[in-house]
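Regression test case RT-17, inverse folding.

Input:
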């Protein structure tokens, strides 16, 4: 038998710890025809939004900009956090400094200064709308910790 289920408050604390400590997430998007794309991306957490950066012309960059929606997975498959979010797209030229600076500080790399992508890098500001967290079946009940952008705990 696995570990006993965590309380909602324990799960929220775990989610916040992962958002602060982890460097990468799985990012799931879809193109206009519904074709799925799943890639790992580095991110920064500002305390209220996730900041992602990828080449503006990449499949993920195009999908994020076109749909304004994303699903992100964080953590191990036996201790997962799934975040559904709304996306605001910023070019390297118009990204708010607080977002780009948070990303650059976390990763010691600043996409605004990187010219290796022919179309340049875009930044994607992800506002969480729904957050779910669970380890095993015994945590499926109560796995939704945020709904419509508001913490439930």
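Golden output:
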């Amino acid at each position: 038998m696995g570990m006993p289920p965590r309380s909602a408050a324990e799960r929220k604390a775990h989610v916040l710890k992962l958002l602060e400590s982890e460097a990468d997430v799985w990012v799931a998007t879809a193109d206009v025809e519904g074709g799925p794309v799943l890639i790992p991306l580095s991110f920064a957490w500002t305390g209220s939004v996730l900041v992602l950066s990828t080449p503006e012309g990449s499949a993920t960059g195009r999908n994020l900009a076109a749909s304004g929606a994303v699903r992100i997975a964080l953590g191990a498959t036996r201790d997962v956090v799934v975040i559904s979010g709304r996306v605001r797209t910023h070019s390297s030229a118009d990204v708010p400094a607080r977002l780009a600076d948070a990303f650059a500080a976390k990763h010691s790399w600043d996409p605004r200064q990187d010219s290796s992508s022919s179309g340049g890098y875009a930044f994607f500001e992800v506002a969480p709308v729904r957050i779910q967290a669970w380890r095993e079946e015994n945590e499926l009940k109560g796995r939704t910790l945020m709904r419509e952008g508001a913490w439930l705990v």
